[in-house]
Each structure stands twice: as structure tokens, then as C-alpha cells.
Design a protein that fits this description.
Blueprint lengths: L7 H136 L3 H17 L1
Length: 164
């Protein structure tokens, strides 16, 4: 007996044993194996689909965040522009109010200066008038210190009245 050339009886029983094992595997083993391979394939396909959906969601979220960031930057630019415009308006308003207040102060100062000038002129005229009367009084006293001089003055005044 040689291992390389089996006998027909051994060959028969080997074929029968192979057939039984094949039948048992075909009936019970192969369906479970193919079912497990199909489940694994289905799980892998579902995982790939979930990964694809996650990538799509991630891309969508990135687009949304980029859009939100752009919108926020635009809003920031708009707010800054509004703030600059408001600052400009406030500065212009303050300048206008300051100019108006300055003009008012200048006008009031001019009016006060004019009033003080007029008061000073009146005061000077009054003082000049008083001084003139005092000087005239002193001159008349010196000139009319005697009765003779007083009579001469009265005569001159009467003469002046007659000539008019």
C-alpha cells in the first residue's frame, strides 16, 4: 500500500466523508459564513455611507460657518462704518455748536464792550462838565473878586444881550 496510490475502497470512503462534510458545510456552514460576509459588507457599506454623510455635513457646516463668519465681518464693517459716520456727525455738531457758542460769546462781549464804552464816555463827559464848571467857577471868582469887576461883567453881559 502506498500513500501515493490509494485503494478504491479508501477513495470511496474519502469521497463519502468529503460529501458529508461538504453537505453539512453547505447546509449549515456556508449560509452562516455568507450571511456574516453579507452583514459585514452591509456594515462596511453603511459605515462608508455614514462617513460620506458626515463629510457632507462637515462640508455644509464649514460652508455655513464661513458664511456666518463673512456675515459677521460684514456686520462688523457696517457697525464700524456707522460708528465712524456717527463720530463724524457728533464732531460736526460739536464744531457747529462751538462756533455758535463762540459767536454768541463774541457778540455778547462786543455788546458789553460797547455798553462799557458808552458808560465810560458818559462818565468822562460828566467829569469834564464838572471840571469845566469848577474851572469856570474858580476863574470867575478870581476875575470877579471885587465889586467893580462884578459890575463890569454885568455890563458886558447886558451889552451882549442887547446886540443879539
Amino acid at each position: 500500500m502506498s500513500l501515493l496510490t490509494p485503494e478504491i475502497g479508501l477513495l470511496f470512503w474519502m469521497i463519502v466523508a468529503f460529501g458529508v462534510v461538504f453537505f453539512v458545510l453547505a447546509k449549515f456552514g456556508f449560509p452562516i459564513i455568507t450571511q456574516m460576509v453579507d452583514e459585514r459588507k452591509k456594515y462596511i457599506d453603511e459605515s462608508l455611507e455614514a462617513a460620506r454623510e458626515a463629510n457632507e455635513k462637515l462640508a455644509k457646516i464649514q460652508e455655513e460657518s464661513a458664511a456666518m463668519l463673512k456675515q459677521a465681518q460684514e456686520k462688523q464693517s457696517q457697525i464700524l462704518a456707522e460708528a465712524m459716520e456717527m463720530r463724524k456727525q457728533i464732531v460736526e455738531k460739536a464744531e457747529t455748536e462751538a462756533t455758535a457758542a463762540g459767536q454768541k460769546i463774541i457778540t455778547e462781549a462786543r455788546q458789553q464792550i460797547q455798553a462799557e464804552k458808552e458808560d465810560a464816555i458818559r462818565d468822562i463827559r460828566r467829569q469834564v462838565g464838572e471840571l469845566s464848571v469848577q474851572v469856570a467857577e474858580k476863574v470867575l471868582r478870581q476875575t470877579l473878586s471885587t465889586d467893580k469887576e462884578q459890575m463890569a461883567m454885568i455890563d458886558r453881559m447886558l451889552d451882549e444881550l442887547e446886540t443879539k
